[in-house]
Every structure is written in structure tokens, then in C-alpha cells.
Amino acid sequence: MPYETSPGPASVVITTSGSPSPGFSFTVSPSAPGVFLSGSHAIAQNQDGTLNDAGHPIAPAGTLVVYLTGQGPLDNAVATGAAAPSQPLSRATQPYSATIGGQIAPIQFLGLTPGYVGLAQANITVPNLSRGDYPLVITVGGVAGKAADVSVGAPGSGSAAGN
């Protein structure tokens, strides 16, 4: 969806081989957070840069970088097809929150990933949970995204990844 598309009623007509389709109408939501998945697991990086999974969990209090789309309006708009700048950052402007395993997981940053086109990230502090896989839910503008699993390791392991 082009970034410049305004929230509200919209329609699409698809043309193939010169013949337009009948088209369809839909409503564009101001936000619709969707975490990128590998199966049911969030595509996320641990503090040490490893991909978060059961073999590479993150320790409680670590920062997990979760990749998503649908973050809504930004304070530094980026044209459709353009890479997000690193200065200034493009931050989400609607209220946002996250939970992991039903516990509040503070978000330090929610916005576009610098150097990438249309890719958002949420830098999330992992709450104090025991070892295991937990559902992560990100909410933006009152809209909760689908839960995605993240792996949490043992606390006090001395490793940012919690191995």
C-alpha cells in the first residue's frame, strides 16, 4: 500500500493484459501492526544480532528488535519506495504498546528501519519471564496485531541472548 494512501474508504482495480477487473472496495486503517513471521515465530533479532529462536533465546531485560509493518503515520514521513533515513528517524505517532506472555514489554522505539524500504521495527525490552516461548502482541493506535512467538532464555546467564 503506498504510504501516501489516506485512511478511510478505498478501492482497487487490477488490470492484466489490458482488461480491468471489476475491482473491490475496502477500508484503509490508520494502523494494522503485523509482525513478520517464520512459522509462528516472530522474525526478531536478539541484542547480540542472532535471530531469536528456541536455540537462541533472549534473556529477560534484554532488548529484542522485532520486524513488522503497519505502524501507521510517522513523524518524519518517507515517500513510497524510498529508504528510511537514519537522521532523523521516522517514528510512529500513534500510541503503541507490547506484551510478551501477557506482561507489559516496554517499546523504546517503533518506526521505520533506517536504510530499508517499508520495513518497521519495534525495539522491545523483554519482561522478567522464565525460559520458554511466549506470545508477543504489538498494539498500535488501539489495533492489536496477531500474536507471534518469541523465545526467552534463563535470567542471569550473562549473555544478551540468554543462552
Question: Can you describe this structure?
Answer:
The chain is an all-beta fold and 163 residues long. The protein has a single domain, classed as Immunoglobulins (Immunoglobulin-like, Sandwich), CATH 2.60.40. Helix content is 0%, strand content 39%. The protein has no helices and 16 strands. Strands 5, 8, 9, 12 and 13 form a five-stranded antiparallel sheet that branches. Strands 10, 11, 14, 15 and 16 form a five-stranded antiparallel sheet that branches. A two-stranded antiparallel sheet has the order 1-4. Strand 12 and strand 13 form a beta hairpin. The radius of gyration is 18 Å and the shape is elongated. The N and C termini lie far apart (39 Å). The mean pLDDT is 90.
**What is the second-level CATH architecture?**
Sandwich
CATH superfamily name? Immunoglobulins
| Helical content (DSSP H or I, runs of 4+) | under 10%
Total domain units:
1
Radius of gyration: 18 Å
Low-confidence stretches: none
Strand content: 35-45%
Query: Based on DSSP secondary structure assignment, what is the total number of beta strands?
Result: 16
Mean pLDDT: 90
Please work out how many helical segments DSSP would assign.
Answer: 0
Class computed from helices, strands and strand pairing: mainly beta
CATH topology: the name is Immunoglobulin-like
Described by strand count, sense and barrel closure, the largest sheet is: 5 strands, antiparallel
Order of helices and strands, N to C? EEEEEEEEEEEEEEEE
